[in-house]
Amino acid sequence: MKSAAPWARAQRPSESVPRRRPLLIRGGHVVDPRNKRDEIADILIEGQHVQKIAKIIKPTREMEVLNAVNLVVTPGLIDIHVHLREPGQEEKETIATGTAAAASGGFSAVACMPNTVPPLDNVSQIQFVMMKAKSEGYVRVYPVGAISKGQEGAELTEIGAMVRAGCVAISDDGKPVSSSKLFRRALEYARTFGLPVIDHCEDPDLARDGVMNEGRLAAVLGLKGIPRQAEYIMVARDIALCELTGGNLHLAHLSTKESIALVREAKKRGLPITAETCPHYFTLTEDAVADYNTNAKMNPPLRTEDDRAAVLAGLADGTLDVIASDHAPHTRAQKSREFDFAPFGIIGLETTLGLVLTELVAKKVLALPVAVAALTDAPARAFNLPGGHLSPGAPADLTLIDLKSRHTVKEFASKSRNSPFIGRTLQGRAVATIVGGDIVMQQGRLKKPNL
Known about the structure:
By secondary structure, this protein is of the alpha/beta class. It folds into 2 domains: about 20-75 and about 395-445, Urease, subunit C, domain 1 (Roll), CATH 2.30.40.10; about 75-380, Metal-dependent hydrolases (TIM Barrel). Helices cover about 30% and strands about 20% of the residues. The protein has helices spanning about 5-10, 95-105, 125-135, 160-165, 180-190, 205, 215-220, 230-245, 255-270, 280-285, 305-315, 330-335, 350-360, 370-375, 375-380, and strands at about 25-30, 35-45, 50-55, 65, 70-75, 75-80, 105-110, 140-145, 170, 195-200, 210-215, 225, 250, 275, 320-325, 400-410, 425-435, 440, 445. The strands form 3 sheets. Strands 1, 2, 3, 4, 5, 16, 17, 18 and 19 form a 9-stranded mixed sheet that branches. An 8-stranded parallel sheet has the order 6-7-8-9-10-13-14-15. Strands 11-12 form a two-stranded parallel sheet. β7 (about 105-110), α3 and β8 form a beta-alpha-beta unit. α5 crosses α8, α8 (about 230-245) runs parallel beside α9 and α9 packs parallel to α11 (about 305-315). The longest helix is centred in the middle third of the chain and has 17 residues, at about 230-245. The two termini are about 25 Å apart. About 55% of the residues are buried.
């Protein structure tokens, strides 16, 4: 039997933590995909763990009771693709503001990408993020370490040491690993730790200087395009190296129909691959940049309606396991530059759940339990994280959702505002986020957990 990973051990309750009152969540519609629960039930939390789920649990005087009637209760949402920007880019986001945004959006845990300044490419940087998250964060933070030193694509990082420090995956996200030899070595070495290797699938030579999807619209706008082949060529390479090494491969933010077809075929062959997409790829197309809207500039770029349909199909048939935000904050000044010079990326922690419920569940693309799985169980399994389910003894991380709540996107807990969804009305939102038995967000009010 494998020993517990460092990040799992770090979440165990400490004797020094003050004793919490038991928390009883009553009368909610419990959706727990891992345990195939889809029913009205009560949930009892003791300390930092789920104690019991039953049709009716009789409250006692010592219990705190949270009424969940007419609400959906799920495992705490997990976002495995988030840019918290700290250290080095605190003008865009910090661990404090990014985790506040996560809690506001219903996420109880996030995995943060390593393209900070300097990158998360060594033990001290991983430890810095974990200590900052413990002292200032609202939700659990799992650092992703860099594949290569300095994210320069030349030399592997000390992967084993970073794993022992708490790293849950490795990636050079934001910079594709061009060297097939280095990526092979990363898959082989990470396999010894059961660690997933995440790739930003992009051929840098094909994509160089591109700012949107290559095609007719790019030509009309006079903007240099990024061909779709830049993504799926690298997807094909990564799948071949996964087959060669047997390493766990996670493909980030897929956007093209060809990429999804390649993953579908690879999964049929039983390869250890997981894949994610983001809400912007199933809600928007390249038309969103027709007026040079830099808040719709992202990498990979928004694609065509055929690609959007393929993303929906990939989610529906399970080819795409995970929905992640790719939360990428930038300042107003940075996004106000000319389109060619504005940075890639949008924020997403506070809009992801609403977009999933509005565009996938309400439109019957996905049943509610399937959508919940893509935000809970699937990301937990992909990165071997605790949580993602409500089994007795599981971490007491939960999200309470009001499916009928309609709201217009306009205010954010994030430090940045670079969202193409501002002004859009969404149906469904998180009304409470619970982390380790503590209510860290309730009706928009935030409170730090005692982990």
